[in-house]
Specification:
about 30% helix; alpha+beta; 6-stranded mixed beta sheet; about 20% strand; 10 strands; 4-stranded antiparallel beta sheet; about 260 residues
């Protein structure tokens, strides 16, 4: 990912409140379009202009060709707050973050995330790198808000079950591991939508922990169709199971790895 500064010049008198609202509106639009990553965007006022620092999945993420209708509308709304469209300055590549998928025609995708990931939750099925969302057709209402909200909920459940400090842990774990959960239902709806738009298979990662022992884990069948889904070798060293008809991938319980 790349560290990028967005500089907003004032072309007329404005107020801090109006400027803040207009910048936040644009930042949210960019976030829901996958052009910026994360949920913390520090903004400073310096010498009469505003600077917002963001993280972008690619160096060209802020190119106008990637803008959604909501982003374009938010840029237009800056003028009502006395601000010009932002100047984009790429500071450099973040050495601590993931790279981005550069495949022009992935064979498939995987919907996968964890509580420590800040990148796109859509991964390329060829090199297992996060796919910038603006490189696939918009999922709904011109952007990817439904997918990003699903990712936030998945990561929240993951954080709760990892911490294991409250009784909420069990409900959170159920959301991550059960095909009857709301989180699974929403995620599968999203994978089906992306598959329809891209004409490519999209797999949903079903988290697995617990179980009796490794032997019984290796004999697990697809929880959706009860079919055989054990792979000869782990896919990307992570997914031990894959069901093509159901579009689900999973792992041997983390308790036995």
């Amino acid at each position: 990912m790349f560290v990028v500064d967005l500089t907003f010049d004032c072309y007329q008198d404005t107020t801090l409140e109006l400027a803040e609202q207009a910048i936040n509106r644009l930042v949210n639009a960019l976030r829901f379009n996958g052009q910026i990553i994360g949920d913390e965007f520090p903004t400073v006022l310096k010498d009469g202009f505003f600077i917002t620092r963001v993280m972008c999945p690619t160096e060209d993420a802020m190119h106008p060709l990637n803008h959604s209708p909501f982003v374009k509308h938010s840029i237009e709304q800056l003028h009502t707050a006395g601000l010009l469209a932002p100047k984009v300055k790429v500071i450099g590549q973040d050495i601590h973050s993931n790279g981005a998928d550069m495949c022009h025609d992935p064979s498939c995708y995987i919907l996968y995330t964890t509580y420590v990931h800040t990148c796109s939750p859509l991964y390329c099925g060829d090199d297992f790198l996060p796919v910038p969302l603006f490189r696939i057709p918009a999922i709904a209402n011109g952007d990817y808000k439904t997918l990003i909200k699903w990712q936030e909920d998945w990561q929240a459940c993951d954080q709760i079950q990892i911490n294991g400090a409250t009784r909420c842990e069990f409900s959170a774990l159920e959301e991550l591991t059960s095909i009857k959960s709301d989180l699974y239902r929403r995620g599968r709806d999203i994978t089906k939508r992306i598959s329809f738009l891209t004409k490519k298979p999209v797999y949903y990662y079903l988290y697995r922990v617990g179980g009796v022992d490794k032997e019984s884990e290796l004999k697990r069948r697809c929880p959706s169709c009860d079919g055989e889904w054990k792979l000869p070798e782990p896919w990307f060293g992570l997914f031990d199971f894959r069901c093509e008809p159901c579009g689900i991938v999973s792992n041997i319980s983390w308790d036995f790895q």
